[in-house]
Design brief:
Order of helices and strands: HHHHH
Transmembrane segments: 16-41, 47-69, 76-97, 103-125
Number of strands: 0
Distance between the termini: 35 Å
Largest sheet: none
Number of domains: 1
Structural class: mainly alpha
Strand content: under 5%
Shape: elongated
Radius of gyration: 18 Å
Keywords: Membrane, Transmembrane, Transmembrane helix
Number of helices: 5
Length: 140
Amino acid sequence: MNGPATTPTRPAPLRLLAGVLALEALAVLGAAVLLVVEVLVDVPNSLVASIALIALTVLAFALGVVLVIGVWQRRAWVRGATITWQVLQIGAAWVILQGDMAAWIGWVLVVLAVIAIVCVLHPATRGALRDRDGRELDAR
């Protein structure tokens, strides 16, 4: 045995970020399942539009999974992608809050987006995310 493992532990903001992104991905998966059930149970106004919406929702779920994996593997590109995703979440929350849907869903999206943005901008997260050469982002 040569000593302790060389992989440092993940800082708390990075773990929280991975958890928030995983929760968002699961929520998008739930939305995709609900859309499929709705198409099967009810006659949609446009079947093509319904299928396209389901496909986009599944694609958004896949993006969420890729983000979680990227955070867990400490990939540097995750920072920009996560901020972009959270801005889109805030936009979705705005539409929900302005519409006649359940307002609490919009507020949950806003809170999760703010938590994720704070986590991704946290110095411990910036230090934990490295480029391919193992250099810290701030060392360039």
